[in-house]
Amino acid sequence: MTRPVTPARTRIRQTLAAVALCGSLTACTAGAVGASRTNESAEAAPEAAATVTVVRPAAGRTVTVTAAGGRLTTVKVVDAEGGVLVGRTGADGTSWVSDRKAVPGTSYRVEATTRTAGGKETSARSTFRTAPASQVNKLTLAPGKNTTVGVAQPLSIVFDRPVTNKAEVEKQLKVTTSNGAVGSWGWLKDWSGKDRVDWRPKEYWKPGTRVDLDATLDGTDSGGGWFVRDYRTGFTVGGAKQVVKVDLDRKRLVLERDGRAVRTIPVSGGTPGGDKRSWRGTAVLMAKEGTINMNSETVGLGDAYDKMVDYSMRLTWSGMYAHAAPWNAANFGRANRSSGCIGMSDADAAWFYGQVRAGDPFEIRGADTKGTVAEGNGYGAWNVSWEDWRAKSAAGR
Question: Which residue from 37, 184, 248, 366 has the highest number of Cβ atoms inside 10 Å of its Cβ?
Fold first, then answer.
């Protein structure tokens, strides 16, 4: 039997029905995939960002930044003037601590970046300001910056206000020498009554030594006031070792250079038997002051003298000098008849003044003197044994 032929219109309807059925399946299949993805998203929710905490310190404390739920990748702490507070991140990456302390009365901006275990990065910002200092401590450094000095010159710091936190302050004072000279800080009272700390080597400096101080005191509490800046200075020891040997018993002075006598000068020292006697021990030349007015009332000797004196070289704060003393010419090399200074002729003083420099040691001896130069009366540290000097360090160094 022959199959009847299907009309064209009927074949078109069958084809459309088939396409409609396939479209419906496809839609069902897509819906099933979509449901599967939704379930996966519910099981693995988006990773939370790490949180950052800035511990706002009081002045004199380090800045601490911590992260929870991630690791710190960068931390930047900047003050209002653009100065960067450098710090270090801990081994586990969750904390950062500044190397330096926060300074009183200063604003800081903290910027930190974190990263989670899944790689999510987040940035955070914070600001804080420390309370202002109730008292500010300042200091005076000697010798002057980039000066050339003699082999006995200590590095000396006098503080404007009391220092009760001596160990904390001393830890911020870093001395560097060009040849690794061994030395130590020693705390004492300056002649003015102020707190002072000196750094001297175990023995006289070697000529040519470069000495530098880096005092990172900004943000340190001295106990009597805050430091609000750092200090840096440096000096060089001259190219020859000069030592002045003063023998008051023989009434003479010898300038030695690198161990050899250069010139012997007759002198007259302090009058024996009373307050006009000279000091003994090692006195360091503090300054060459030229022509100055010397008045005995300023050193407790009444109206003994009031005159202009040439070629004046200060040895102590209490008023002992080496200088020209033409009015005492009859006693040079013969008798000690001064009011405590070491006097010599105009010609000898002019020559001697041109040879010595600040920091040269005057090693003074004599049977009838009023005592040894004290540490704070000028630079008397060399009259203390090395062991006793090291014991004056507050930080054990």
Answer: 248
Question: Token pair for residue 43?
Answer: 């099981």
45 has a pLDDT exceeding 70: no
| One-letter identity of residue 42 | A
Please report which confidence band the pLDDT of residue 43 belongs to, taking 50, 70 and 90 as the band edges.
low
Q: Give Cα 79 to chain centroid, integer Å.
A: 20
Name the more confident of 264 and 304: 264
Which pLDDT does position 397 carry in this prediction?
64
In this structure, the number of other CB atoms found within 10 A of the CB of residue 393 comes to 17
In angstroms, the CA 174 to CA 137 distance is 19
Q: How confident is the model at residue 301 (pLDDT cuts 50, 70, 90)?
A: low
Tokens of 245: 């040997």
Q: Which helix (H) or strand (E) holds 186?
A: strand 183-189
**What's the one-letter identity of residue 58?**
A
Q: What are 134's two structure tokens?
A: 């109730």
Domains, in order of start, for the chain: 51-129 (2.60.40.3780), 139-238 (2.60.40.3710), 242-380 (2.40.440.10)
Residue type, 319: G
Q: How far, in Å, CA of 278 to CA of 298, rounded?
A: 16
Distance set, CA 163 to CA 166, 167, 239 (Å): 6, 10, 36
Q: At residue 158, what is the residue type?
A: V
C-alpha atoms less than 13 angstroms from C-alpha of 105 in its C-beta half-sphere: 10
- Give per-residue pLDDT as tens, 89-118: 999 999 999 999 999 999 999 999 999 999
pTM, entire model: 0.82
What are the pLDDT digits (tens) for 229-239? 999 999 999 99
pLDDT of residue 60: 87
Strands 321-324 vs 342-344: parallel, antiparallel or unpaired = parallel
Q: What b-and-e string marks burial along 352-384, b requiring 16 or more CB atoms within 10 Å of the CB?
A: bbeebbbbbbbbbebebbbebbbbbbbbbbbbb
